[in-house]
Design brief:
Helix 1 packs antiparallel against helix 2, helix 2 packs antiparallel against helix 3 and helix 3 runs antiparallel to helix 4. The chain has 135 residues and is mainly alpha-helical. The longest helix has 42 residues. The protein has five helices and no strands. It has one domain. The model has no long low-confidence stretch (mean pLDDT 88). 85% of the residues lie in helices and 0% in strands.
């Protein structure tokens, strides 16, 4: 009996910490996005790196939203975030990085794209039992 109470308490405490952490991530992302909008407003221009950064913020918010709705995190979201971050890095530092580094970063983006395809293929062709029951 006490073991069950301890287990339930731990699960509740961890779920609470998880929700607090997700809330902090969502609030911090909104604050960062608002700061970026202010930078764009002050500059009077919107650049491609600015747009990619806004997409990063949107992907993080989408990740938090999906986690709240489904209770689990699809691995694709961090892969998308990684691809956008690498593309932003390429665009911002294109003049300052060597051709080899540019190819390596482009190769990393390609690997992440293939990983997304593999995850999607696996999810469709080899669904988890609980996912198959929902369809």
């Amino acid at each position: 009996m006490p073991a069950r109470l301890i287990k339930r308490f731990n699960q509740t405490a961890l779920a609470l910490l998880e929700h607090i952490g997700l809330g902090i991530i969502a609030i911090a992302t909104v604050v960062a996005a608002a700061g970026e909008v202010r930078v764009m407003w002050d500059a009077g221009a919107v650049t491609l790196p600015d747009l990619l950064l806004m997409f990063l913020y949107l992907e993080v918010l989408a990740m938090v939203s999906v986690y709240y709705r489904q209770g689990k995190l699809p691995i694709r979201f961090p892969l998308y975030i990684g691809m956008i971050a690498l593309a932003r890095y390429l665009i911002i530092d294109m003049k300052n990085i060597s051709e080899l580094r540019m190819l390596v970063v482009a190769g990393a983006i390609l690997i992440l794209a293939f990983a997304v395809l593999a995850v999607r293929y696996g999810h469709i062709k080899l669904p988890y039992p609980e996912d198959a029951n929902q369809e």
